[in-house]
Amino acid sequence: MKYKNIFLGLGSNLGDREVHLQRAIALLEEDECVQIKKKSTVIETEPIGHTEQGAFLNQVIQIETSYDPYSLLQKCLKIEKSSGRIREEKWGPRTLDIDILFFGETVLQSDGLKIPHPEASNRAFVLLPLAEIAPTFQHPVSGQQIEAMLHLL
Asked: What share of the chain is helix, strand, coil (3-state, %, to 5)?
């Protein structure tokens, strides 16, 4: 089964940030269970939360996959780890962050995974690139289109 309208948020603020994003996309493209459908442009943003760190490069990609949400999460965590990601502090600096923003119309709330991403609708660094590639995608909980959510920020 192919799941559609899955959006991943990519971010990096350590090392060669652009290479980390490109490598993550390449590793996803190599996986026969993942098809990349669209890629936003890369934007540079200031950190949120822990602000005493370097600026981030952020990008959103749209994929189709035969992975279920938990398997996709494991794939993303494996790619993060292979890029040298160390989880020391919440919102701390990182070589690579891959968040599942939306998984189609799926709404999931578990200890290890929350879909839609709980902060997706509050962050310009998610909504700007997302509006570029999927302006009319509707948030499965609020029903709002991405473009409309962006204008509320």
From this structure: 30, 25, 40
68 is catalytic: no
**Alpha helix stretches (DSSP H) within the chain:** 17-30, 69-82, 124-133, 146-151
**23 counts as catalytic:** no
- Exposure b/e, 22-50, CB count within 10 A at least 16 = b: ebbbebbeebeebbbeebbebeebebeee
Q: Domains of the chain: which residue ranges? A: 3-119
Catalytic choice (23, 68, 99, 111):
99
* 82-111: pLDDT as tens digits: 998 777 666 668 899 999 999 999 999 998
Whole-structure pTM value:
0.95
CATH class of 3-119: alpha beta
